[in-house]
Amino acid sequence: MKTACGLAACLLLAACALAEDAASGVRPDCSVIPGSAQDGPSRTYEGDNLFEYMDGNSEGYFIYGFVRMNGVSCRIGRDTVLIDISEFPDAESAYGMFLANRDINKPMEAIGTGGQTAPRKSIFAKDRFFTEITSQQEGDHTTQLREEARAMEARIPGSTARPEALGWFPEGMAGGSARLVPESVLGIRALKRGYVAQYPEGKAFVVTEVSDAAAAGVLDKLRSRFPGATSVADAPDAIQATDPYLGAVCVFRKGRRVAGYTNLTDASHAATLIAALAARLP
Length: 282
Fold this sequence. Notes:
Elements: H1 2-24, E1 37-38, E2 43-46, H2 51-54, H3 59-62, E3 68-76, E4 79-87, H4 91-101, E5 114-117, E6 121-126, E7 129-135, H5 142-153, E8 174-181, E9 194-199, E10 202-208, H6 212-225, E11 230-232, E12 235-243, E13 247-254, E14 257-262, H7 270-280
Antiparallel strand pairs: 1-3, 2-3, 3-4, 4-7, 5-6, 6-7, 8-9, 9-10, 10-14, 11-12, 12-13, 13-14
């Protein structure tokens, strides 16, 4: 009986420890950098106090729904390496944060959901976490940082699946994959949150609403937003317009999604383009 009670107590303590870890997020440590030692206390930032660490760069975290950041500084030789793991509400937001910070002119790497390494910094997303590993010493530390990123990625739980929406865009986009815009897509408040992708012939976008009716309401707002908007032949839920900032625009609705193209180089191709995009939407 005592043994059973002791086992139950151990299980309860283990469950509490796991719950505590879940509540505080993933915490990095210097063991991912062989030969290093922690330099100073670990750091945690939640909410507005991220300003204390990021200065003017913190706003870019907040628009993706920043929850917390856990970080540590690791001293190895003359270098200090910073490891910071930021948590977001969901995997889509974390991957959106990664896409917003990567260099679109350089290739992505198979680290987590997606990663990229430069001479002094490696970044990657996995599940709802966005990780940054930064060398403070001048020089090219690409190989070292990539190894450290892979070691850290192995310790972060969760899925490496990319957001489904990235597969909705037709082939041929410029500058790599589409990216998440967390608010005011195309600078239009009615388009609250969605994805955009640049193509040689224009910029494509997809916004998902909570229901078909909500999406229809957004399309009605866009009709008012673009004076002179006209219907598209054979597409009852599509409009075309010309905007001083967005150029030639074509927008349509499919179910609870509002999508289309802006800055079209040849407006006569609008119907063909939106048909190709609509065919890929669920």
